[in-house]
Protein: Translation initiation factor IF-2
Amino acid sequence: AEGMTVKDLADKLEAKVKDVMRVILEQGMRMTINSTLDADTATMLARQFGAEVEVRSFEEEIVEFEEGVSRPEDRETRAPVVTVMGHVDHGKTTLLDSLRTTRVAEREAGGITQHIGAYAVELNDRKIVFLDTPGHAAFTTMRARGAKVTDVVVLVVAADDGVMPQTREAIDHAKAAKVPIIVAINKIDKPDSNPERVMRELSEIGLLAESWGGDTVMVPVSAKAKQNLDQLLEMILLVTEIGDLKANAARNASGTVLEGKLDRGRGPVATVLVQDGTLHVGDTVLVGTIVGKVRALQDDRGRSVREVGPSTPVEVLGLGGVPTPGDTFQAVEDVAKARQIAMFREEQAKAKSLGARGGRMTLETLQKH
Ligand code: GDP
Ligand code: MG
Structure:
């Protein structure tokens, strides 16, 4: 992709240059049709046009990404990763809490406190991962950075309130990201709840319930009274089964940063989602422009673990800095190479911000005349 311009990309995507430019402007980037695209931007743009591109860049050539590359026979089913979205007060937090306490805590006396912004639940020995963090803003930020972490969106709509602005917004996000939607019609315990009204309102904006002949799964639930939650989990498994989610636990870990913070006692702490491979204590990881050695791993229940496989949220200690949500991470064999890539990325980022500033100045100059 070195040297690929906006126009080149449009040609490759068989899209109109002006359509690609529109997306670029919508994302707030300043470019012309002759601007050169970096790998992240090209990948992000291609996704918007429904294409998965394999962008080969300098950094990919020097990291042995292909090491332990997945042979089809090595790939195993992985757990689906879910983001809960919906209008404020429709019950997202209550739903996440109820799922956590019913499906996780029942086996552990004393319950569990939340450790990281993501956790796994189990239904009939099958795992489902819920992300707490990506609300609408985080979801958009991650997507803009080219990160795809969610396999399905659970859209919470309160049955006593119906479709509201953030309901529509969530649908738009999910559609743009090409992530399937399951609707949880919530608060059915309330006397004034009207699930049919919710179904009707959703049908008017393009989501027709399966029970009405459409293809959107809708499950009436009460997050508060913990009604029908197992049915919701079953539907998540069913819908994602079609997606045939696979990963290869034998390869080096890779995934996405969900959160980063600086902890007084522990130093930089990152919550990451391992999406492929297995991450071990002692691995060297490259996260954005940061290189570090994994000093400790903590799972969603705050337990120290030695290693974690695909579709696992985990807290990573030992990084040399605080990473940004949406950053990708890779476990790498070669520390020197990892450092080289980190430096390369830093230079690229610098060049980018300089370029952006240059663009703005030109525009300002233009506007003055
Ligand atoms: P969020 O803004 O989407 O995270 O919504 P919350 O989970 O904070 O819920 C908003 C309010 O609705 C709280 O007072 C909850 O107790 C209440 N609530 C959530 N789910 C239910 C439900 O299933 N039934 C009833 N009756 N109330 C609910
Ligand atoms: Mg909430």
Remarks:
- The first strand starts at residue 76 and ends at 77.
